[in-house]
Amino acid sequence: MAELPNTQTLLLERAEGVLHVTLNRPDSRNAMSLAMVGELRALLAAVRDDPSVRAIVLRGAGGHFCAGGDIKDMAAARAAAGDAYRTLNRAFGSLLEEAQHTPQVLVAVLQGAVLGGGFGLACVSDIAICQQDAKFGLPETSLGVIPAQIAPFVVGRIGLTQTRRLALTAARFDGAEAARLGLVHFSEADEEALHARLQQVLEQVRNCAPQANAQTKALLLAAQSEALGPLLDRAAEQFAAAVSGAEGGEGTLAFMQKRTPNWAQ
To answer: Which of 90, 123, 136, 259 could be disulfide-bonded to 153 (CB atoms 3.0-4.6 Å)?
Structure first.
């Protein structure tokens, strides 16, 4: 079990194979500071190879997920001049890349403000659950800036046509619209229903073998960018290894014996 880093902007809790991560800057609606970006990146690196962590649940404190970038950090970057803006912006893009490819199942629980960078984090989750009255949007252009790091991830999530509409109008929308767009998988009426859906999703994740899940996630992501033939060649090799491996053996035996496999117990 990996040792978790000390964090000032995140609340961390382990429970039943799940790492619960809460963005904890409620006074700023959990705006993404450079410190928070650094802590999230360190956390993902710490648990990347930890088999005891089956899923990571990301949410925000105080009724909001994340209202975007921290204006104070932007002001500090302005004062520093030089390369500070680029460094600040690119660090968040690196976080999105690392979150997208984390081997664990990444579940986003979305309430209140889901704006800018928070919108980007939602787009790199494997499973997104929101409360119906959550407020989504890409406000960057209305502030005279651009959604520089999140844009590719938003396009990957909801497609170019809808991303163009949302980014070029800074339109706000609710959880029902987020579900219609495919940004989230579930839009729930209230917090109680949100919690119930999260528990259902985590139970489903626990029914899946962790290494098989990690390899499947990597395969699905690779399908977006790699040539089909070489990808299928590599996938065939991985399949053969999985069938003869520990998880494949246990899964097959459990099926024959009509019992629950050891990873789901």
So the answer is: 123
